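subagent[fold] <- orchestrator: predict structure for attached chain, return tokens only, no commentary.
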Amino acid sequence: MPPRDCPLCPRLAEFRDAQRRAHPEWHNAPVPPFGDDEAELLIVGLAPGLRGANRTGRPFTGDYAGDLLYKTLQKFGFAEGVYGARRDDGLALRRARITNAVRCVPPQNKPEAREIANCRRFLSAEIGRMTRLRAILALGTIAHQAALEALRLARSKFPFGHGRMHDLPGGLVLADSYHCSRLNTNTGKLSVAMFEAVVESIVGRLASAGSVPVSLPLAACEAGEGPASAGGTSQAAG
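subagent[fold] -> orchestrator:
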């Protein structure tokens, strides 16, 4: 986890400082993951939203994306309690953990390539600590690519596609969904049913895998700059 005043990305640090001056009551710092290291499912988003996670200090909390995400997780048994759009609402995750490819809020919600690369070390270390991890749900193309690069897997072998389920080396599953943002739902790119279908597919894969151990690539425990080629297959979710 990066420190509160992480200096790795000057543009993000400058924007973060500006938000601290404008809104000193907000979190305005790298947003920590939500959920424990023993989770079977890791959900990877893009970055904290300005008035969502950057304000509240918890991923997908305080904006529409969280409304859809947490409601869906509750429906399929990955969360319990009442989602009150606050960090202290008492909501708890079960067998799931939520994180972001980029830990600090970017201007216009658009991180630059170098900023995504700078944060890769934190995602790699996070995945490496998750000894019971069975599946990763990537919300959007950038999250999908960040997960593959954190694992040092070639992006070309596992192209993003909503509803796709990629069988990665070692038994890990990478599931793809369009990001559950208000923009995507308002434009019809993603519906509630489409999002729920992806999560339901993950539930099925976890159930069929049972207690079969997953062997993560060594690179998942290391910080790296570029992906390496590896085997594996990808398929459309059924």
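orchestrator: received. Logging for downstream: Confidence is low (pLDDT under 50) at residues 221-231, 233-238. Residues 192-209 form the longest helix (18 residues).
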